[in-house]
Amino acid sequence: MNTQSEGVEGPQSIPALLHRNASEFADAPAYREKEYGIWQSWSWRETLEEVEALALGLVDLGAREGDFVAVIGRNRPRLYWAMIAAEMVGAVPVPLYQDAVAEEMAYVLNHCGARFVIAGDQEQVDKVIEIQEQLPEFEQMIYLDPRGLRKYDHARLHQYSHVQDVGRAKRDELTPEITARQARLTYDSTCVMLYTSGTTGKPKGVVLSNRNVIETSRSSSEFDDLRQTDSVLAYLPMAWVGDFIFSVGQAMWTGFCTNCPESAETMHTDLREIGPTYYFAPPRVFETQLTNVMIRMEDAGRFKKWLFDRCMAHARKVGPAILDGRRVNQWDRFKYNLGEILIYGPLKNTLGFSRIRVGYTAGEAIGPEIFDFYRSLGINLKQLYGQTEATVFITAQPDGEVRSDTVGVSCPGVELKIAENGEVFYRSPGVFVEYYKNPESTADTKDAEGWVATGDAGFIEEGSGHLRIIDRAKDVGQMADGSLFAPKYVENKLKFFPNILEAVVFGNGRDACTSFINIDLTAVGNWAERNNIGYASYQELARHPQVMDTIQAHVEEVNASVAEDDMLSGCQVHRFVVLHKELDADDGELTRTRKVRRRIIEEKYADIIAALYDGSKSVSTTTEVTYEDGRKGSISATLEVRDAAVQVVSRKMAAE
């Protein structure tokens, strides 16, 4: 079935790229998966055969061109193949977050009108069955893992391998239809539909074409010199645009190998075993890894800790310069090479970063100390700025121009401009087609000339051309005295501390800023263990006096840092509370990509916010929570409200 629709620039669809790879890289590894502790591998030729078998089976089940096929589950080769097979038959794949509760899935499945659902296991099948009465378009479900599903009603339920078997058996009969459908795929055909996180309302379906995905994959791969011999670990949610581009778009363009870990619990072990050359992680992952390193060093012997501290001090001094190819004297280079043998090399091996050529972080700001730590080890970690609507890439940091305080320069083919109100706009070949069934939002976001409003406020540095992001434009406001209010700027500084997992800052239109704090249970729990401090719950640990003192010291340190910024000095945190529970996506407080839903938090915790501003020293509250099995409950607590020292604004600012 050689149906590569070739255009001026080559293959014009993801299935066409798969055909090309099966021809050019036939026996090279395309996908790997660890199952039962053993790595299994599929070549590009084998991947094409697996995808075609599923596509033929989908046609036999009645899949039509233009249908929507939902894909739900953890990162597995067969679920990536399901998305490619869906496009192969002219349908549109719609990956969903596997940890979404049934009600969240109901909205997406109903909104897109999915006729088919391809689910990873019994848990995902059960969610769909629970809501199937709300889905008038839903017809068939295919499951990958048969465990626990033997006694289910299989009238509309089909095992993945059985669908493939039927496809193989009817290959001769159905091949002409598949061939014709692939021939009709063009650059402007829909490649995938991905739903936004929905921080301010219902998620929106972002329609991305083959042009969006392939052009972005091509330019970003060339930007970082990605190669067919590279490999990537696919562990981030399949519903997130970044995973789709890295694990499908760029993988199909370059022909590199996508590796799927056995589970979330084994991810770090699997990362060490694979040793990817191309790696992406949000700041929280890098922060967690660094926290674990520091926890282990606290428990290390005196000499080992002394050696670690000495080598890391030198690495911070010269490591980034060596990485960027700048001049470093021979003695410093010798000491660094010695540190590579004693500390840096073993540490990178432990983290699974020994082979990384290109690493990226994005989504939130990463702490400068954390960012510099990894680069000082010789890891080429960089920052990028992107959105679902941009098919990820808007700006990225070129090699040799990597800094912790910017998100880089515009990516190849991307144009940037800053509006009068400071909002960042862009246009590029990756700009999305539309929001599905939402022309009003499409028109609000993308104008007739193709410029897209990011919703973020920032500015472009003169000379360097680097973009700096301040905050979400809708969150930027004014304090009562007219000074600038940018909560995310302060929140990111607070989250730089390993003890702080999440922070939410309030203050728009008010006289002072206040904050909610979530402690990081891993980091603070380890501290408690080392100091023989017992605790029975997150709530008990969070309100321990020494924990409160530590958090207060962090808040005051941030205040001192914020006070140095003339523009944002009014955003110092005057009062704070350490919350009695972690903010949770299941409770609607965060999106599935861990973005804060401010409006919901302000409504849900209105009593605590009131206490922050009325001078109360404590506040008693009861909060509804959702347990892992979907049951609702509530927890009550009395929270201490603390005052934090703030820095006096400079005379210059006072005069202004």
Structure overview:
The chain is α/β, with parallel strands linked by helices and 656 residues long. Among the domains are: 6-33 and 40-186 and 236-253, 3-Layer(aba) Sandwich (Rossmann fold); 477-655, 2-Layer Sandwich (GMP Synthetase, Chain A, domain 3), CATH 3.30.300. The protein contains 22 helices and 30 strands. The chain has a five-stranded parallel β-sheet, sandwiched between helices. Strand 7 (116-119), helix 5 (122-131) and strand 8 (140-143) form a beta-alpha-beta unit. Residues 1-8 and 651-656 have low confidence and may be disordered.
Give a short synopsis of this structure.
The chain has 656 residues and is α/β, with parallel strands linked by helices. 39% of the residues lie in helices and 23% in strands. It is built from 22 helices and 30 strands.
- Mean pLDDT over the full residue set: 92
Describe the strand arrangement of the main beta sheet, using strand numbers: 6-5-7-8-9
**What's the assembly state of these chains?**
single chain
Find the structural class using helix and strand composition: alpha/beta
Salient structural properties:
656 residues, alpha/beta, GMP Synthetase, Chain A, domain 3, 5-stranded parallel beta sheet, 5-stranded mixed beta sheet, 30 strands, 39% helix, 23% strand
Fold blueprint:
Blueprint: E1 6-7, E2 10-11, H1 14-24, E3 29-35, E4 38-43, H2 44-60, E5 68-72, H3 77-88, E6 92-96, H4 102-112, E7 116-119, H5 122-131, E8 140-143, E9 157-159, H6 160-169, H7 171-183, E10 190-195, E11 205-209, H8 210-223, E12 231-233, H9 241-254, E13 257-260, H10 267-274, E14 278-280, H11 283-298, H12 302-323, H13 330-351, E15 358-361, H14 368-376, E16 381-387, E17 392-396, E18 409-410, E19 415-418, E20 423-427, E21 434-435, H15 439-445, E22 452-460, E23 467-472, E24 477-478, E25 484-485, H16 487-495, E26 500-506, E27 513-519, H17 521-530, H18 538-542, H19 545-563, E28 573-578, H20 598-604, H21 606-613, E29 618-626, E30 632-643, H22 651-655
Parallel strand pairs: 3-13, 5-6, 5-7, 7-8, 8-9, 12-13, 14-15, 15-16, 27-28
Antiparallel strand pairs: 1-2, 3-4, 10-11, 11-21, 16-17, 17-18, 19-20, 20-22, 22-23, 24-25, 26-27, 28-30, 29-30
Helix pairs in contact: 1-2, 1-9, 2-3, 2-6, 2-7, 4-5, 8-9, 12-13, 12-14
